[in-house]
Amino acid sequence: MLMVKTKIAQSATHGIGLFAAQFITKGTITWRFMPGLDLIVPEDILLQLSEPARAQFLNYCYVDKYTKHFILCFDDERFINHSEDPNIVQSKSENETEGVEIAARDIQEGEELFCDYTQFDFDAIRKLNKTDIYSYTDENKDERDKKVAEFITKLLSQNTITSSK
After folding, report:
1. Which among 30, 53, 122, 160 has most CB atoms closer than 10 A?
2. What is the CATH number of the domain that holds 45?
């Protein structure tokens, strides 16, 4: 859930973007996972979706690098764009379900908000490269990563998903 005032508008970087609608001081928490509003969507639900719905979902969700949960933000956070020099950074602590986002520096009202997808999204490589090849298929020794890779392979064998963030 966004913790600061924002608005969506045309982005010079990528289609639509998320912009500060207030001055945001460095260190301010800008987003926090809010159970009941933000969703952790189980894999079996994704298998029940039509191909267009699944593509749309995978376009706007992220897959937490640590928990491998499919997370869908209920608000305009889903419009935040990627930058290798973000003004928003991720932080994970024991008492946070899915972490928080924090202003890495002072952000002016009207400035576009950026995060680095590779910091938190297990599917960042596919989204950034627009390859239609899921980054989940990269070999990884962790058993959970293998389970997610098998799941995505199953999705891909059923349909070709071509959407990207």
Report:
1. 122
2. 2.170.270.10
Q: Tell me the pLDDT tens digit for each residue of 32-49.
A: 999 999 999 888 888 788
Q: How many domains does the chain have?
A: 1
What value does the mean pLDDT of the chain take? 81
Best CA proximity match to 134, nearest among 143, 125, 142: 125
Question: Hunting for tokens 């071509």 — which residue is that?
Answer: 162
| pLDDT exceeds 60 at position 136 | no
Which structure tokens are listed for 98? 């899915």
Count of Cβ atoms closer than 10 Å to residue 31 Cβ: 25
Evaluate whether 55 touches 155 at the Cβ level (below 8 Å): no
Full domain range(s) for residue 148: 6-158
